[in-house]
Write a structure and sequence with these properties.
Elements: H1 3-14, H2 34-52, H3 62-97, H4 100-105, H5 109-125, H6 129-149, E1 154-158, E2 166-170
Antiparallel strand pairs: 1-2
Helix pairs in contact: 2-3, 2-6, 3-5, 5-6
Length: about 170
Protein backbone atom coordinates (compact mmCIF):
# COMPACT_ATOMS: atom_id res chain seq x y z
CA UNK A 1 0.00 0.00 0.00
CA UNK A 2 1.48 3.37 -0.97
CA UNK A 3 2.01 6.19 1.47
CA UNK A 4 -0.44 8.35 -0.46
CA UNK A 5 -3.11 5.65 -0.18
CA UNK A 6 -2.57 5.42 3.60
CA UNK A 7 -2.81 9.19 3.98
CA UNK A 8 -6.05 9.27 1.98
CA UNK A 9 -7.50 6.42 4.08
CA UNK A 10 -6.59 8.27 7.27
CA UNK A 11 -8.16 11.49 5.94
CA UNK A 12 -11.31 9.60 4.99
CA UNK A 13 -11.60 8.25 8.54
CA UNK A 14 -11.22 11.75 10.01
CA UNK A 15 -13.66 13.40 7.63
CA UNK A 16 -15.74 10.88 5.66
CA UNK A 17 -17.54 12.04 2.56
CA UNK A 18 -21.31 12.39 2.89
CA UNK A 19 -23.38 9.55 1.45
CA UNK A 20 -25.30 10.45 -1.72
CA UNK A 21 -28.84 9.06 -2.05
CA UNK A 22 -30.29 9.38 -5.54
CA UNK A 23 -30.84 7.29 -8.66
CA UNK A 24 -28.42 9.43 -10.58
CA UNK A 25 -25.84 9.86 -7.76
CA UNK A 26 -25.91 13.66 -8.07
CA UNK A 27 -28.06 13.41 -5.73
CA UNK A 28 -31.35 14.69 -7.11
CA UNK A 29 -33.57 12.57 -4.85
CA UNK A 30 -36.04 11.77 -7.62
CA UNK A 31 -37.39 8.23 -7.58
CA UNK A 32 -40.58 6.76 -8.97
CA UNK A 33 -41.70 3.22 -9.79
CA UNK A 34 -43.72 4.52 -12.75
CA UNK A 35 -41.02 3.76 -15.33
CA UNK A 36 -40.91 0.10 -14.26
CA UNK A 37 -44.70 -0.10 -14.44
CA UNK A 38 -44.78 1.55 -17.86
CA UNK A 39 -42.10 -0.84 -19.11
CA UNK A 40 -44.17 -3.79 -17.83
CA UNK A 41 -47.19 -2.48 -19.75
CA UNK A 42 -45.04 -2.33 -22.87
CA UNK A 43 -43.94 -5.95 -22.36
CA UNK A 44 -47.60 -6.97 -22.10
CA UNK A 45 -48.49 -4.99 -25.22
CA UNK A 46 -45.68 -6.52 -27.25
CA UNK A 47 -46.81 -10.02 -26.24
CA UNK A 48 -50.34 -9.17 -27.33
CA UNK A 49 -49.11 -7.83 -30.68
CA UNK A 50 -46.91 -10.88 -31.20
CA UNK A 51 -49.80 -13.22 -30.40
CA UNK A 52 -52.08 -11.33 -32.82
CA UNK A 53 -49.51 -11.26 -35.62
CA UNK A 54 -50.72 -13.31 -38.58
CA UNK A 55 -48.14 -15.71 -39.96
CA UNK A 56 -47.89 -15.59 -43.73
CA UNK A 57 -49.47 -18.55 -45.47
CA UNK A 58 -47.32 -20.90 -47.47
CA UNK A 59 -46.83 -19.44 -50.91
CA UNK A 60 -47.06 -15.85 -49.63
CA UNK A 61 -45.28 -13.11 -51.50
CA UNK A 62 -41.73 -12.34 -50.33
CA UNK A 63 -42.89 -8.86 -49.28
CA UNK A 64 -45.52 -10.37 -46.96
CA UNK A 65 -42.97 -12.71 -45.41
CA UNK A 66 -40.54 -9.83 -44.97
CA UNK A 67 -43.23 -7.61 -43.41
CA UNK A 68 -44.10 -10.39 -40.94
CA UNK A 69 -40.44 -10.99 -40.07
CA UNK A 70 -39.80 -7.27 -39.59
CA UNK A 71 -42.82 -6.80 -37.32
CA UNK A 72 -41.97 -9.87 -35.27
CA UNK A 73 -38.35 -8.77 -34.88
CA UNK A 74 -39.41 -5.27 -33.81
CA UNK A 75 -41.99 -6.53 -31.31
CA UNK A 76 -39.54 -8.99 -29.77
CA UNK A 77 -36.76 -6.40 -29.57
CA UNK A 78 -39.09 -3.89 -27.92
CA UNK A 79 -40.39 -6.52 -25.48
CA UNK A 80 -36.85 -7.45 -24.48
CA UNK A 81 -35.73 -3.83 -24.20
CA UNK A 82 -38.64 -2.91 -21.93
CA UNK A 83 -38.22 -5.98 -19.74
CA UNK A 84 -34.65 -4.79 -19.21
CA UNK A 85 -35.87 -1.25 -18.49
CA UNK A 86 -38.18 -2.67 -15.81
CA UNK A 87 -35.23 -4.53 -14.27
CA UNK A 88 -33.05 -1.43 -14.37
CA UNK A 89 -35.69 0.77 -12.75
CA UNK A 90 -36.32 -1.81 -10.03
CA UNK A 91 -32.56 -2.11 -9.44
CA UNK A 92 -32.35 1.66 -9.02
CA UNK A 93 -35.14 1.67 -6.45
CA UNK A 94 -33.62 -1.32 -4.65
CA UNK A 95 -30.03 -0.09 -4.65
CA UNK A 96 -30.50 3.64 -4.25
CA UNK A 97 -33.90 4.38 -2.73
CA UNK A 98 -34.98 1.62 -0.37
CA UNK A 99 -33.25 1.71 3.00
CA UNK A 100 -32.95 -0.89 5.79
CA UNK A 101 -35.83 0.74 7.64
CA UNK A 102 -38.05 0.25 4.57
CA UNK A 103 -37.21 -3.45 4.52
CA UNK A 104 -37.97 -3.69 8.24
CA UNK A 105 -41.33 -1.97 7.82
CA UNK A 106 -42.13 -4.07 4.73
CA UNK A 107 -40.64 -7.53 5.31
CA UNK A 108 -41.88 -8.74 1.91
CA UNK A 109 -39.67 -6.16 0.13
CA UNK A 110 -36.62 -8.41 -0.36
CA UNK A 111 -38.68 -11.26 -1.79
CA UNK A 112 -40.75 -8.89 -3.94
CA UNK A 113 -37.68 -7.31 -5.54
CA UNK A 114 -36.08 -10.74 -6.06
CA UNK A 115 -39.28 -11.97 -7.72
CA UNK A 116 -39.45 -8.86 -9.89
CA UNK A 117 -35.93 -9.40 -11.19
CA UNK A 118 -36.58 -13.07 -11.99
CA UNK A 119 -39.96 -12.29 -13.57
CA UNK A 120 -38.48 -9.54 -15.72
CA UNK A 121 -35.83 -11.98 -16.94
CA UNK A 122 -38.48 -14.54 -17.84
CA UNK A 123 -40.57 -11.89 -19.61
CA UNK A 124 -37.48 -10.88 -21.57
CA UNK A 125 -36.47 -14.42 -22.51
CA UNK A 126 -39.86 -15.72 -23.59
CA UNK A 127 -42.87 -14.74 -25.61
CA UNK A 128 -45.09 -15.35 -22.62
CA UNK A 129 -48.10 -13.19 -21.82
CA UNK A 130 -48.40 -14.66 -18.32
CA UNK A 131 -44.81 -13.70 -17.51
CA UNK A 132 -45.56 -10.17 -18.74
CA UNK A 133 -48.71 -10.04 -16.58
CA UNK A 134 -46.69 -11.28 -13.60
CA UNK A 135 -44.11 -8.54 -14.24
CA UNK A 136 -46.79 -5.86 -14.04
CA UNK A 137 -48.20 -7.40 -10.87
CA UNK A 138 -44.85 -7.40 -9.10
CA UNK A 139 -43.99 -3.87 -10.27
CA UNK A 140 -47.36 -2.77 -8.88
CA UNK A 141 -46.49 -4.46 -5.59
CA UNK A 142 -43.20 -2.55 -5.50
CA UNK A 143 -45.04 0.68 -6.33
CA UNK A 144 -47.38 0.18 -3.37
CA UNK A 145 -44.46 -0.36 -1.01
CA UNK A 146 -42.62 2.62 -2.50
CA UNK A 147 -45.53 5.01 -1.96
CA UNK A 148 -46.14 3.64 1.56
CA UNK A 149 -42.55 4.59 2.45
CA UNK A 150 -43.50 8.15 1.52
CA UNK A 151 -46.80 7.97 3.44
CA UNK A 152 -48.72 8.52 0.21
CA UNK A 153 -51.86 6.42 -0.26
CA UNK A 154 -52.30 4.54 -3.52
CA UNK A 155 -55.16 3.60 -5.75
CA UNK A 156 -55.43 0.76 -8.24
CA UNK A 157 -57.06 1.71 -11.50
CA UNK A 158 -57.29 0.56 -15.09
CA UNK A 159 -54.37 2.03 -17.02
CA UNK A 160 -55.14 4.37 -19.94
CA UNK A 161 -52.98 2.25 -22.27
CA UNK A 162 -54.03 -0.39 -24.80
CA UNK A 163 -53.21 -3.04 -22.18
CA UNK A 164 -55.96 -1.71 -19.89
CA UNK A 165 -54.40 -3.57 -16.96
CA UNK A 166 -54.71 -2.54 -13.34
CA UNK A 167 -51.95 -0.19 -12.23
CA UNK A 168 -50.99 1.34 -8.88
CA UNK A 169 -50.97 5.14 -8.77
CA UNK A 170 -50.21 7.56 -5.93
CA UNK A 171 -53.40 9.15 -4.64
CA UNK A 172 -52.54 12.79 -4.24
CA UNK A 173 -54.97 15.12 -2.49
Amino acid sequence: MSALHRILQWMDRLSPAPVAHAHCDIPCGIYDPHHAQLAAHTVIRMNLLINDLKKPASGSKPEEIQEYANKLARYVATKEQHAEIAKSEIRILWGDYFKPEHAQAHPQLHETVFKAMKTASKARQEINLQAAEDLLKVTNDIAEIFWKTKNIPTVRAKAPYPTERETVYPKLA
